[in-house]
């Protein structure tokens, strides 16, 4: 019934945004990004973090909160880079965050869910859930739902009669597999499934 009145797949406009992100920031390019190509705060709209938060917002939102969620950012007020306490320098933050995304991506491709979660948690901190899966969901939209809040994932799993266990990627994949087991989900992509869940199980 929901599918009769709602889009169950990504729209052409959003697909174009996703394609642009993948073209500008392919996974294999991440280790070579400079700080200025990564950080938000300079006022430009072409950096990695701006794309994650704003330009790809329709593909899964991580809007809100402070810039510290990115691990490192430019502070116009202080005229320098600011970084989370778990890092030793802006350069250390950049290297570990982007390296963690690449490592997590390889683990995800290999079906190593625990390795995916371990890579993102060690690179960014286990509480940085907005960052830990957003980039991966853009690189692997068929493998992950664009849902990043662990409490939301647990809520949807319980609504579907499942017991939530594991870390962020494990919860996400468990939810996706549960949905894929339902015959009615066959025409949906992960964007459609995300929209359905937030619409019907708020």
Lateral strand order in the biggest sheet: 1-2
Major sheet summary line: 2 strands, antiparallel
First-residue to last-residue Cα separation = 17 Å
CA-based shape:
globular
Contiguous runs where pLDDT drops below 50 for at least 5 residues: none
What is the H-and-E element order?
A: HHHEEHHHHHH
Radius of gyration: 17 Å
Number of helices: 9
Q: Helicity level, as a percent range? A: 40-55%
Query: What's the average pLDDT?
Result: 94
The tally of strands reads 2
Strand content: under 5%
Q: Helix/strand-derived class?
A: mainly alpha
Please give a handful of descriptors for the protein shown:
single chain, 202 residues, mainly alpha, two-stranded antiparallel ribbon
